[in-house]
Amino acid sequence: MKYTNIDDAVNANGLRLVIVKDMPSAWGVAAKAMIDYKGLDYLLAHQIPMSENPELLAWSGTNSGPVAAWNNESPINRWDDILFLIERLAPQKPLLPKDAAARIQVLGISHEICGELGFGWNRRLDMMRPPEGQPPSDFGKKYSYNDTDAALANKRVVTLIKELATILKVQAKQGSEFLVGNSITAADFYWAAFSNFIVLQSQEECPVNPQARPMFENTPAEITAAIDPILIEHRDKIMRTYCKLPLEL
Length: 249
Ligand SMILES: N[C@@H](CCC(=O)N[C@@H](CS)C(=O)NCC(=O)O)C(=O)O
Description:
This protein is mainly alpha-helical.
């Protein structure tokens, strides 16, 4: 994949995706994997982590990644907006089921993984925890670090991963390797990408900035103790079957 610079992405037509550079930033990893799976043509550009990203901010109203844009429509950055955009652009390879009950399940699981105070959010709260008695960092402030949610973050992660493991086991009994139904959905891509926040893929599969690796490998013991192997088996299966490896970050 060839990366373009941010100005060219801003001025181009068609689909553009901006992802966080050299990080296993799961919102962007999942968006890119789903766009690749759907076979959409797009330009890929970088957000520089923990930097101002003035061009990205001026264009999209955010200086986080990912940002996606289609033709002259306003750029978008929420996980669900990006999912609905790519569903519209490539409906022939759907990642949301048509069946209402299955669709509710996929969107519910996806929200619990990607949405506010979901899995990714809670892992980030834990990673941003300032040393005892000190205020949050600028990065912490950017993502609304607060002591109340930080105190609950690891418990919330444990509750969710136990539920996901239960779902995968019930599915396995019914002969499915997917989180919902019998074919891949957005929920599988999200779990595959976000699982890196508790068990980081190898450097060969996920070539993150080596300086950032320790931060992502520093999973608290109470979470590690709750990781059922089926969660990582599912991740590896989805990554190796449906995603481009090594990940392009
Ligand atoms: N926009 C996403 C969340 C995106 C997000 O949290 N991005 C973070 C990933 S940790 C990021 O860009 N970090 C790098 C930075 O802020 O510099 C959503 O809410 O659906």
